[in-house]
Amino acid sequence: MATTSTKKKVGTAAATAAKAGSVDQQAAQVIRQNMLWSMGAGVIPLAYVDTAAVLAVQIKLVKELSDVYGVPFRANVGKSAVAALIGSLVAGGATNGLMASGLMWGLLRSVPVVGQIVGLATMPAFAAATTYAVGKVFEQHFASGGTFLTFDAKKVEGYFREKFEEAKTRTVGAAAA
């Protein structure tokens, strides 16, 4: 006798947010939960492993926001969009104080002990700020009826930087308190 079972997604931010109420509330909950996940990923003491984990959380965030807004998720486009947004920060130098340049960051992270301490001190804040900015960009894009096919990272670069700076200020302010 064959039985079929349905698999439930347990513990995803989108499932939790579905109970929250309005679409705006759901999106805010998804962004908040993924910020916390990315901060946790930023604490991983291995250079580049932490970065990969943060990027995985951000792709998960975009997928969960697409679920909230009923936009079919396109993994390849989602990955490319997140990479383009994060790349715009490094290219534009918007990471003052948290990551001055990719080369210096990579060199510093490779120094035993010191690199790990610097990473632990900065990566969670950077991860939270970038995750917040990615979330806000896709929240705005999906709320205005956008899809993965209509997403243009260049058009939202200014908004992304604005949200990154907003989150960076909040994160640094919260850490100082």
Regions with little confidence, pLDDT below 50 for 5+ residues? 1-11, 94-103, 173-177
Number of helices: 7
* Structural class estimated from helices and strands: mainly alpha
Task: Specify the oligomeric state.
Answer: single chain
The number of distinct β-strands equals 0
- What amount of the residues lies in strands? under 5%
**Largest sheet report:** none
Shape: globular
Helical fraction equals over 70%
Over the alpha carbons, how many angstroms does the gyration radius reach?
A: 17 Å
Mean pLDDT: 78
In whole angstroms, how far apart are the ends? 61 Å
Helix and strand succession? HHHHHHH
List the helices and strands and how they pair.
Layout: H1 13-18, H2 23-42, H3 49-69, H4 75-92, H5 102-109, H6 114-143, H7 153-176
Any overview of this molecule?
The chain is mainly alpha-helical. The chain is built from seven helices and no strands. It has helices spanning 13-18, 23-42, 49-69, 75-92, 102-109, 114-143, 153-176. Helix 2 (23-42) packs antiparallel against helix 6 and helix 3 (49-69) packs across helix 4 (75-92).
What's the quick description here?
This protein is mostly helical. It has seven helices and no strands.
